[in-house]
Structures are given as C-alpha cells and as structure tokens.
Amino acid sequence: MTFLDMLGDAARQNSSMLCVGLDPEPAKFPARYKGDANKIYDFCAAIVDATADLVIAFKPQIAYFAAHRAEGQLERLMEHMRRVAPRVPIILDAKRGDIGSTAEQYAIEAFERYGADAVTLSPFMGFDSVAPYLKYEGKGAFLLCRTSNPGGDDLQAQRLSSVEGQPLLYEHVARLAQGPWNLNGQLGLVVGATYPAEIERVRALAPTLPLLIPGVGAQGGDAAATVKAGLRDNGPIIVNSSRAILYASSGVDFADAARREALRTRDTLQAARA
Looking at the annotation, which residues are catalytic? Predict the structure, then answer.
C-alpha cells in the first residue's frame, strides 16, 4: 500500500484524524522509567499499544531518539509499530533539508533504515533537496510550509518581492507542492494548528494535499478550528498531538491515561467534522 492508501485506510478503520507524536523525554517519563534513556522503547511501545486503534498515523521525532543515542531503540519501535498496527502509517519527523548525495543518504535513512512511510522535509534548498525522496515509490514527503512556532514569521510570512500582490513565502511553497513539485502525488504540507487562518489559505492553494498539522494540545491549537480550516472531501488532515497524550499521567497508569487523552482528542476532532 502507498502512504496515501494507508492514510485513507487508517482514517476509515479508526474513524480518526489524530496523529500521536512520539517525542520521548526520559525526564518526563513515569516513575518506573523516569530519567532512564534505555527505557525509551518501552515507554513508546506502551503508548503505541494503547492508542493504535485510535490514530490515523504515528509520528516519531528522530531528534528525541538521537539525542539519547537511542537510534537502535527507534528501529525496534518502527518494527513494533509495523507489527501491531500494520495499516497505520508512520511519519518520520526529521525535517531534513539538503541537496545531492547528502539528500539521497537521508532518504535511505528514512525509508530503508527506519522503514518510514513518510518523512518531513524543509524545502528551503529547493526541489533538488526534495527529489531524492520522491524516487521511493508510494512514500510520502511533507514540506514545512506554515509552522506553528512564532519565529516562522521571520521567513514564512515574508513576501517574495515588494511588488504588490506577490505571494508570501509559505503560499509559494503551497503552490509548488500542489503543482510542479508533486510529480508522483507524494507531497503533503506541514501547517501549524496555531494559525487556523493560514491553514485555510494553504488549503485553498493546495486543495488535495494531505496536511500534517501539529500544535493541538500542549501548544494550544484549537481542534475544532483546525478541522474547519483544513479538512476537505479530497484533502485529508493529520492532526498531531504529542506531549498532551504522552505525558497525560506520570503514574503507573500512563498508558491508560494516554489512551483516554487520545480518545478525547480523536472524538473532539470527529465532532468538529460534523
């Protein structure tokens, strides 16, 4: 199955637009794992097991593993997710952005080493920094477009020139992704939930692309506004929540608490759809 096939299948099977972000911080782990980086796999696998039937995707953030020399645990976790939730796509949140042979190596890392179904990328260096990932048939690539951090304004909200009517940078990225860059229908866009007006603008420019939308939960994005702004019949959304779900409890019930929070968020998103 292609990434888009898996995405649609998971959305239907789990009645979900929710993506659980796997950003493990040992300092925030529950008491029995707290501070132990060797327990990253155990913690994340428990979260996966508790939420696998509630999500449209999982999104491990590679930096949280690499910082603790836990790449091997990430490999094990990827295998675990494919085993327990084979129809739920995995988006490797790497935000890579380089050209030529270096981009080719990063693509190998994402799709061959880790076996991800999609990856997040920075488009700042142009199409030749994206093209190596598109050689992997059926895989997805999400380009940073209008991110949820305040500093995104520094570049993304700037006009391409001083001429009246010229698009903002993030609008230009959306047009490229919907049009000439999307050679095989593999591209999506990352748009932050903290900017619902910009989500709606991106959706107008890229009506059919999947939108990966972080920022619901701990970052304060509004779930109902996100769904209204981004969801269209032929334009799916993947709404990510990480910390609010991962650290819903610091006790022995952390996995059960994560499930309750994931269920609440999923149902909130589904209610907004109606």
Answer: 95
Backbone angles phi, psi at 147, to 5 degrees: -80, 165
DSSP 69: T
CA torsion sign for 73, 74, 78, 80 is positive
Q: What is the pLDDT of residues 45-64, one digit of tens each?
A: 999 999 999 999 999 999 99
Q: Is the full-model pTM beyond 0.90?
A: yes
262 with 51: CB under 8 angstroms? Answer: yes
The SS3 of residue 245 is helix
- Sketch the domain layout of the chain as residue ranges: 3-273
For 151-163, the pLDDT digits (tens) are 888 888 888 876 7
Pick the CATH number of 3-273 from 3.20.20.70, 3.40.50.880, 3.40.50.1950, 3.60.20.10: 3.20.20.70
| Region of poorest pLDDT, from 20-29, 41-50, 208-217 | 208-217
Q: What letters, b where the CB count within 10 A reaches 16 and e where it falls short, cover 168-179?
A: bbbbbbbebbbe
DSSP annotation string for 17-63:
-EEEEE---GGGS-TTTTT-GGGHHHHHHHHHHHHTTT-SEEEEBHH
- Top pLDDT among 208 and 225 is at 208
